[in-house]
Every structure is written in C-alpha cells, then in structure tokens.
Amino acid sequence: MEKELGSFDHLVERLRDEMRYEFSRTGPPNDFPAFHDVPSKRYTSSEFYDLEQEYLWNKVWIVAGRVEDLPDKGSYFLFDDLGLPLLLVRGQDQIIRCFSNTCRHRGAPIVREPIGKVKRLRCQYHAWTYSTEDGQLLSVTDERDFVGLCKEDRALPEIQCEVWGGWIWINLDPDAQPLVKFLGSVTNELEQFKAENLRLKGTDHRIINCNWKAAVDAFLEVYHLKFIHKSGNLPELDNAGAALGLLPNGNSRMVSPFSKSSATTMGMKSWEDFKIFPSGGGLEAIPTVHPVFHGTRYSFTIFPNLVIPLSATGFPILLFFPIDINHTHLRIFHYGLENENEDQEWEKRIAAFGKIIDEDVENLAPIQKSMASSLYPGMPLNYQERRIWYMHETIDKTIGIERIPEDHRIEQLLASYVEPS
Ligand code: FES
Ligand SMILES: [Fe+2]
C-alpha cells in the first residue's frame, strides 16, 4: 500500500508539472501535429453507424450494472442498452455471468421482468429451462416431439463478464483483452475511491437528439466551460492549466485546476495547494482519496462510452448509448459513501449536476443538425481538444481503418503522445 501511494504521489507531481507547463505555454508543443477537420459525416452517415454497430460496440467493455444489483444467488437483471437482449445473473455458485436473454426455441425473452430472482432460467413461453451457471439447456417441454434436437447445441450464448470497482462490465467479443488490462493505470488511480464500497445515490438520464459521439465529445474538453456553464455552485476551473493524458486503449484523463478566485475562496494558497477538505457541499469526503482529488477536477473517459468526473465526496458516472444515428441515451448514476444522513444533500447535488448536463445538452441537437448541413464539412480541433481526436482515432482503429471509407477516416496521429501503461 505504501508503495502504491508513493507511485501515486509521483504521478501527482507529474500532473502538477504538466499543469504548470500548460499555464506557461504560448502554443501547442513544437512537434504537436496539425489535425485535419474531423469529417462531419462520421456523425451522420449510416455507413459509419453500421460499421460502429458491427465492429465497435461488439468489441468494447461496457458497464452493465452494479454488483449490489445482484444481491443473492439467482438474482438477475436485464440489460439491452447494446441493442440486443442480455441478462446478468448471479449463479448458485455466486459467480456473475451474462447470457443472451433470447430463448433458443422461438426467440422469446426467457425472462420479461427487468429484475428478479430465479433458480433456473425458465422461458416464460414454453418453459424450456437453462442453467444459470453455464447456460446449458436443461429441459425441453415435450421433448419427444422434437425430431433430432440436440440439447447440447442449444445452450444460451454466454458473454464475457467481469467485475471491477463494484461495476459489472460486459464485452461481446469473446477474444477481448481482460478488463483490468484494458483499464490499465486507470485502476491504480481510481483504487483510492474504493468504488466497490460506494452506493448508488440517485440516477438521471437524458435522451439526446444527436449522434452518440457528439454527446461524448462534449465531455472531453474544458475549453467550453466558462461560456456555457452558468449554473454556478461549483468551483470554477481554469482550462488553460488542464493536464490531459492520453492513456492506452482510447482511455484518457483530464485534470483541471481551480481558477485563482475559486482556489482563494476555498482557502487554498494557489491552484496547486492541494489539500483535504473533510467535506464539501454538505457531503463527507471519501477518507481514502488523495488531496489532488479535493483540489482539482479529475476525470476519466473510458473508451468508448463512459465518463467519470471524480470528486472527493462521491461522483457520477455517465454512460452514452446510441439509440440510432441521431439519438443517444445518456444514463447517469451517482455514487457516494453509505450515509443516510446525506440524502437531502445528494438530492441537491444530483439536481445541480442535472442543470450542468442540460447546459451541455442544449447545444447538441443543433450540432447534430449542423453535421448534416452541406455548409459544415467538418470540425477543426485544437490542442486542448485532443482527447476528442484520440477517441475518434481509437474508434477507427477498433473498427479497422481499412474498413472505413477514406473520406470518413481520422488520421492516426497521437500514438506517440499516449502514456505508457
Ligand atoms: S420460446 Fe422459449 S420455450 Fe418457446
Ligand atoms: Fe460541459
């Protein structure tokens, strides 16, 4: 533990240096590449959308729920945000697994209630029954009437499923790299939040009239912060000092210092005087987190659809799911310490965060319209917006660059800026 904290201190020193550098620079670093415009058709073409459906969403780790949503043997919940019906279930052996919720007989949903508890997975239509431990088809009603049916061939497909931080993650790709390897150093940095001990404080969601990438783009930079976010009530950040880290596998980090006036109001000598505030906004701070999480806004984007804006007193996670080319479902889950006395404060916090989200969302439907306009062929990105470029680069790499029509592609430019894992 000592050693881990030591290495995190080391990272904090590096981040502090990076923020100092960001404040002092007069332009991007000398060798920083020029970006071509990101083609707007990436947000509007059905060809690109279909490629994403086939080669992106089938290959990535996605948060499907929380361990505490499956408290007992046989507890299950349904998950269909990836566009196909899935079921997460805790087996009699306590292991959490993910199966297709499509019966191998006539394709009915095996279970229809979104959450529940079962001993076996018994299809509600004609009662074919499957095991919750391996998806094997255990029994077929009137089996004598099926000619040549082999039960061994009709198990429920099992989807890769792992647990980290109390979240249940799934991946439709049977050959996906292990979750912890994919998350890399993110796990070391998030570790201190002991996320597995945090509890859900409330949820929120939005249906946004834009392509999912336009929605995620809005959370990858702080260049826009002081212009559209007026709801106040949060410390002001200084985007000029933000340290952006590109991490392996399309993940990224953004650490934004407080503005001078916010730092002063909070009793910090300067933006870099990180210290622990035992509580904030009426909420007790998580005792194990480093002062840097108190004295900055530190956030991660986990490729492709998860944004985690951390805070020492608890935090939301934002999940973006495509509904179709022009519509995105944003799901928000807030997590904090288990403390019933704070329910009212959480209510206020969640409402305040919802207002910020509304400010972001307000732009997105018109942006989507612009993406379809013949007068707007593409978007020029700056150095501060490089996390957006990196996400798009990783989308292309995941799909397979050669599969993408040339006029939709993003040049692969940022590999040398990615931090080693
Ligand atoms: S569809 Fe499931 S048993 Fe017939
Ligand atoms: Fe924003």
Per DSSP E runs of 2 or more residues, the count of β-strands stands at 21
Output the number of helix runs: 11
CATH topology of the largest domain: Naphthalene 1,2-dioxygenase Alpha Subunit, Chain A, domain 1
Q: Quickly name the level 1 CATH class of the largest domain.
A: Alpha Beta
Shape: globular
Helix content: 10-25%
The number of distinct structural domains comes to 2
Can you describe this structure in just a few lines?
The chain has 421 residues and is of the alpha+beta class. It has two domains: 290 residues, Alpha-Beta Complex (Naphthalene 1,2-dioxygenase Alpha Subunit, Chain A, domain 1); 110 residues, Rieske [2Fe-2S] iron-sulphur domain (Rieske Iron-sulfur Protein, 3-layer Sandwich). The chain is built from eleven helices and 21 strands.
What would your notes on this structure say?
Helix content is 25%, strand content 24%. The protein has 11 helices and 21 strands. It has helices spanning 2-24, 46-56, 179-183, 186-190, 212-217, 225-228, 260-265, 292-295, 343-361, 364-371, 386-399, and strands spanning 38-39, 62-66, 75-79, 86-90, 96-100, 115-117, 121-122, 129-130, 137-139, 158-164, 167-171, 199-208, 243-246, 252-257, 279-280, 283-284, 296-302, 306-310, 315-324, 327-336, 378-379. The strands form 5 sheets. A 7-stranded antiparallel beta sheet has the order 2-11-10-5-4-3-6, with no helix packed on it. The longest helix has 23 residues, at 2-24. It is globular. 38% of the residues are buried. The chain binds FE2/S2 (inorganic) cluster and fe (ii) ion. The site of fe (ii) ion has 4 residues, from loops.
